[in-house]
Amino acid sequence: MRERPLSPHLGVYRFMYTMATSILHRITGVVLAVGLLLLVYWLMAAADGPVAYERALELLSSGVVKLLIAGWVLAFSYHLCNGIRHLNWDLGRGLERAEARRSARVMIAAAVVIAVVILYAAFVGGAS
User: CA of 6: how far to CAs of 1, 9, 12, 13, 40, in Å?
Assistant: First the structure.
């Protein structure tokens, strides 16, 4: 006798946009949690005094860390917009297939726009 799976998995279901947005929401939540370690490091360095703060600024202003911060900001904006989308669903709105697809596109576009505005303000607008 063939054993049946205990719960649905990707072998049973076709991969759809709802799966992608759900998985990405979870991944961005993990990215946000890990990114908080960088924020805590910066705050601890600020509390530790000017020498530690200067070292932290030197590290945090490197190109690699700026790229990580950009990814963290994108994860933040995606997680925020998708969270608002989920709150809307909790109110019983936007649950139809066409509405859910449209809200997914709007949410992704809004997340990118928000991330670009934040990054522009942080790296370009704040530099002058």
Answer: 15, 9, 12, 14, 41
> DSSP 3-state assignment of 124?
helix
101 found inside a domain: yes
37 token code pair: 């370690």
Contacts of 30 (CB under 8 A, 6+ apart): none
Question: Which amino acid would we find at residue 15?
Answer: F
The CATH code of the domain that includes 67 is 1.20.1300.10
Rounded to whole angstroms, how far apart are CA atoms 77 and 71? 10
- Structural domain count, the chain: 1
Q: Is residue 92 part of a domain?
A: yes
Tens-digit pLDDT profile for residues 57-107:
999 999 999 999 999 999 999 999 999 999 999 999 999 999 999 999 999
**61 alpha carbon, distance to own chain's centre:** 21
